[in-house]
Amino acid sequence: LETAVNDVYEAVVENDEDYDNEEHNEDVVWLREQRSLNKGTHWSRRPSVFMISVIAFFLALANTAGEGNRQIITLQLCCNYISRYSLDGHCSPVDVQSLMSNLQIAVSFVVSCITLVAAGKVGPMSDQYGRKVFLALLLVMFLVGRLLKLWVMSHFEVLQFGLMIACDLIGNIGGGIMCISALGSCYVTDVVEPHERIYSLGLFLAALLCGLSAGPLVGNLINSWASKIDTVHVGNELVSRAVDTANSINKRDFLPMKFELVLLFTLCLFCVFVLPESRSERARKKSRSLSRSELRLLAVPSDTTSSVLGFLRAINFLHPLRLLYVPAEYIPSSDPKRIRNTRIAALLLVVMDSAMGALVFSFLEIFILYGIYRFNWDQRDVGHLITLLCGTRAFTLVILSPLINHNVFQKRMKLRVLKNQFDMVDFAMAFTGFITDAFGYLMIAFAPTKTSMFIAVCLSCLGSMISPTLSSAIPKFYPDSKIGEVYGAVALLKNLLSLVTPLALLSLYKWSLKKGFPNLVFFVITAFL
């Protein structure tokens, strides 16, 4: 299936002379040799977009299968916590939302801090030791974190603020969902040619989004099956109780979360025993050699000082950020103006990509909280939101984005794809995405009903073509031997922004909620875009 898709894609894309005239440096030659070797390998042992997409799909599915139940149960625990200290034994929706917002702010801050460290080390180290080992670490820690969170939520009747944060911290030690995007982008870049990169990255992101959209559907099926067995607990009872009184939680509400654990365990086995490594041994050795050479450049006459500098560099997770200011040796020109323009272009692309990534993760929680407050959503509505959100993005990446890219911008408007610089195709795709994204957020702010909000959310998702466009444009400014470190720097900047973005947006939402203007946050983001 993957071969057929790539053949179709190659038939659509016209040959560009820039690819034929490319300077064949050592990194490019090794990568192409490895890709040629991969074509003769059996599909089950061949590193491919399909293999990493399997990881992305099932990880995303496991992440969202129990998300609706997890959100509603957390709201119930918040209500129980408030009710315990109230005089009438009840909790108001505003108090529950405020406590839930505080929890999400704390979780976002702590998770961003831990993934910040992971993102800074995983990218460059995966260049040296391969992508597979860090994918396995990410999955194992995510499994452990979800297991501990299920235990905490099922063994306490009120919200355990500190333990909930600790569970998310442990689950993201390997990088979490934020780093799967960076590692997956590295994996895809290793196994496909540059002219296939936008579409292949789009397929990978589409697999991630399809998993995110399929997860709530699977969770709803499990909930329906559980409700038929449990004749005492019916439909929306948990939600209606969660906003006004303290109640215990039915054990069957944890079934989707238990399904997540089974799926994550299976995925860990697949990653360890089936997933092939994408980076060749020669490329890994060269990256390790370059790393040792950089360490030797830091050497000074004093052995003690040299050891200290080497240790500080080893633990410096911010080190990849230096690549965002493109080194002069990576720019094929000695013209100062060309060097300055190249650095500005690369830096702007990284900042835009990082900002949009931070916004996507931050707004999912706001969508859910806003829908529960404004339209009285239950866990099924939360599941429908996630399904529509991710399904529309997957449709955009797999079908709509390639059609707009090739049929409109390349064939009709005659825009050319360039290998070593940000081109007009990249600009047109990104600009279109920003416009549709902003219009969608504006419609959400004015949405009067649940259905109209769902439609507006789908419209905003048409802007998802921004991510693969920027992600494929950024590596154009760097050599192939630095791809992992570059994507690590991007993930690092995303996490830096994630320290501020959720805190700012959730604080704004909580403040506007108390002022009776809960949709203010959508107007602010529309103006920003």
From TrEMBL:
> How does this protein lie in the membrane?
Multi-pass membrane protein
Q: Name one GO molecular function term.
A: transmembrane transporter activity
Any one GO CC term of this protein is: membrane
> Which superkingdom?
Eukaryota
Looking at the UniProt entry, the stretches that span the membrane are 49-66, 103-122, 134-152, 158-186, 198-218, 261-278, 344-373, 385-404, 425-447, 453-474, 486-509
InterPro entries per UniProt: MFS, MFS_trans_sf
Question: Which of UniProt's keywords are assigned here?
Answer: Membrane, Transmembrane, Transmembrane helix
Q: Name one Pfam family in it.
A: MFS_1
Where is it localised? Membrane
- The name this protein goes by in its record: MFS general substrate transporter
